[in-house]
Amino acid sequence: MKYFVMLCDGMADEPTAKLGGKTPMKVANKPMIDKLASLGEVGLVKTVQEGMKPGSDVANLAVLGYNSADCYTGRSPLEAASIGIDLKDTDVTLRCNLVTLSDEENYEDKKMVDYCAGDISTPEARELVNYLQENLGNDEFRFYSGVAYRHCLVWDNGNPHPGELTPPHDIPGRVIKEYIPKGADTAKLYDLMKKSYELLKDHPVNKKRISEGKRPANSAWFWGEGTKPRLSNFKAKTGLNGSMISAVDLLKGIAICAGMTSVDVDGATGYIDTNFEGKCKAAIDEFKRGQDFVYVHVEAPDECGHRGEAENKVRAIELIDEKILTPVVNYLKETDDFAVLICPDHPTPLDIQTHTSNPVPFVIYDSKNKKQSGVESVNEDTAKATGIYIEKGYTMMDYFLSK
Q: Does 184 score more than 90 pLDDT?
């Protein structure tokens, strides 16, 4: 038996005027997703536990069968594992976004123009993060480069609960004054952010980006604090050899911490220009080499949601269906009995451009036990109409693996 998870990050949404009062899932042409839905089980699952922030960290952990209340230590430590940082028990890590801020004179008066600095490339970002390390790094704070705009700050003997740190993707277009680090032990972090702006605003990388009409990565922004992860081994928990295919450090880090194989794909970007075909090939190759369980994570719908890009979000869903899900399912049909789980981790509504905690639609298809679900096209409404609801999202994986 083979198990395939197609995780469509941020795919769920709310009806929007941008799509004539519909959601991207309703508009998208997704024949394979809908076919599996019609022959499987469809419902809603709550992937974000009460009291948890609606992030891809806790939501993907839930889909993988992990109870965040027992194992979650923060987002950044999972990303640090992917980057290859050897954390001490006394280290605190923070996500370090490279962002674009507006050019008002006072730092706190600036606006969050872009949480991802215009999709800055990994080589450009690496040069900037290394520059921050050279000028701001010391025995207490160390900067590590990751992928694109996503990087890491390690705070030696830091406070694991320093205060209120706001994700930059939650405040697009807003003046940052109300969202700068607040709390008993955030003054040093805020000082680093302000100093990073002075260092980066005139850096040659940013001057070149501006000359090319691109947004500069002119500030560091810290959030997602945490300590060394404590995930149980996925194979010990499930008895399955598992592989993770993702473009982002968060999912790679979850895989590493869970003892799964993390597969890199050339050209995987985390956006709609990602290498869909490469992810498909990687999934099939993992099954061919004997893996029992393959989890493909595609960030593109989430990124489009954060940017308010309705047409791109619809297209991202269609590309997942066409270029990943369909070929993988067709391969599995010819080789083995199999089960497929399709779901988002959380909604990323186009109109608010950030995550919510609302339940998300799921599809579970079992090649050995086809059924008539009564759902011809899966979306937020048809999933709710089935009356099937999984309140504790982390229990869904055990149910899926019982197929």
A: no
- Amino acid in the structure at residue 157: N
By the 10 Å C-beta count (0-12 exposed, 13-18 middle, 19+ buried), 184 is classed as: exposed
- Rounded Cα–Cα distance for residues 94 and 88 (Å): 14
CA distances from 229 to 82, 93, 158, 258 (A): 12, 11, 16, 10
| Whether residue 192 is found in the same domain as residue 237 | no
Provide the token pair at 183. 């709390």
d(CA 395, CA 66): 8
Same domain, 361 and 284: yes
Residues 219, 111: Cα–Cα separation, whole Å: 12
What are the start-end ranges of the H helices in 95-173?
122-136
What's the pLDDT at 229?
87
Spatial CA neighbour of 222 closest among 307, 151, 298: 151
Residue 62 pLDDT: 98
Summarize pLDDT for 61-105 with one digit per residue, the tens. 999 999 999 999 999 999 999 999 999 999 999 999 999 999 999
Identity of the amino acid at 338? F
pLDDT digits (tens, 9 = 90+) for 337-367: 999 999 999 999 999 999 999 999 999 999 9
CATH number for the domain that contains residue 389 = 3.40.720.10
Sole residue written with tokens 């099954």: 287
Is the distance from CB of 358 to CB of 23 less than 8 angstroms?
no
265 and 178 in one domain? no
φ and ψ of 258, to 5 deg: -95, 5
Phi, psi values for residue 334, rounded to 5°: -90, -5
Question: pTM of the predicted model, to two decimals?
Answer: 0.87
164 closest CA partner among 146, 147, 184: 184
Do 292 and 379 fall into the same domain? yes
User: Which domain does 23 fall in, by range?
Assistant: 2-71+231-401
What separation in angstroms does the CA of 259 have from each of 65, 181, 240, 277?
14, 34, 11, 26
- Domain shared by 312 and 334, yes or no: yes
| Helices 326-333, 276-288: crossing angle, 10 deg rounding | 20
